Amino acid sequence: MSNQLIIREHCFTWGQRTYLMGILNVTPDSFSDGGQFNTASAALVQAQAMVDGGADIIDIGGQSTRPGAEQITPTEELDRVLSVLQIIRPKIDLPLSVDTTRANVAKAAVEAGADIVNDISGGTYDPEMLATVANLDVPIMLMHIRGTPQTMQQHTNYQDLMGEIYSFLSQQIAAATAAGIKYEKIIIDPGIGFAKNYEQNLEIFRQLQTLKVLNCPILVGASRKSFIGKILNQPDPKARVWGTAAACCAAIFNGADILRVHDVLEMRDVSLVADAIYRQDTEEIGTIHH
């Protein structure tokens, strides 16, 4: 794995510390914050709070991908994403990612100032996606999923969970590089909660190390998810911060490079302490943030 990736003059040195990706859902229907930030001004306030909280990347999504989420038209998705990007980009210098499975949305978002494409389908929903990202020459996040957000919870029957996640990601890395995406610009995500049941989500944490062989930085998105709600018997996603903190620690100790989180300020503390315990270069961690 290439040890470094520079995005908008921000240097990501994999293995040195954990990076935080703040979630900015500009949707009316996301599972934990739908409707909260779907005006451009509210989105800007939230993005600024994430910057202040210590985010390394902000991930903007215009299409909810929660189980059973309604598909919206490409035009609606574009309108949501671009209106927010136009307000945020001039004011925030952090790398911004666009959470989309559509090549035309990815292209328009990057042209409007996004720096990364985060595709929950791993480049499988839109046949143009990988070639488009290669032409844009930006990093891509490839996630494992089966089915679609509408159907994924019916696709949890695996013979070999980690083996199947591994082979899907391996195949999509090969497809991405064949399309012209540079290997060092590929980030992988096992897709916690996407076509995975409760036990399978926990298994991914325990076996996360097996994905290291793919030689790509690993992104884990466990924030506020239903498996945490089940453990805590907590139906309110916003009340799952401590459970998310424990999951984030587990992810770091098992090799995650990036955590995709709603609660940036809290998870910054979690990752600083987990990094100090788990990562070798402890002297450097304190100096990066203070």
Short description:
The protein is α/β, with parallel strands linked by helices.
* Secondary-structure element order, N to C: EEEHEHEHEHEHEHEHHEHH
Largest sheet: 8 strands, parallel
The CATH topology annotation reads as TIM Barrel
Low-confidence stretches: 285-290
Distance between the termini: 28 Å
* Total separate domains: 1
Strand residue percentage: 5-15%
Helix fraction by DSSP (H/I, runs of at least 4): 40-55%
Descriptive notes:
It is globular, with a radius of gyration of 17 Å. It has 10 helices and 10 strands. Strand 4 (57-61), helix 2 (74-88) and strand 5 form a beta-alpha-beta unit. It has a single domain, classed as Alpha-Beta Barrel (TIM Barrel), CATH 3.20.20. By secondary structure, the protein is α/β, with parallel strands linked by helices. The protein has helices at 40-53, 74-88, 103-111, 129-136, 161-178, 198-207, 226-232, 241-253, 264-278, 282-289; strands spanning 4-7, 10-13, 19-25, 57-61, 96-99, 116-119, 140-143, 186-189, 219-220, 258-261. Helix content is 40%, strand content 14%. The longest helix is centred in the middle third of the chain and has 18 residues, at 161-178. An 8-stranded parallel beta sheet has the order 8-7-6-5-4-3-10-9.
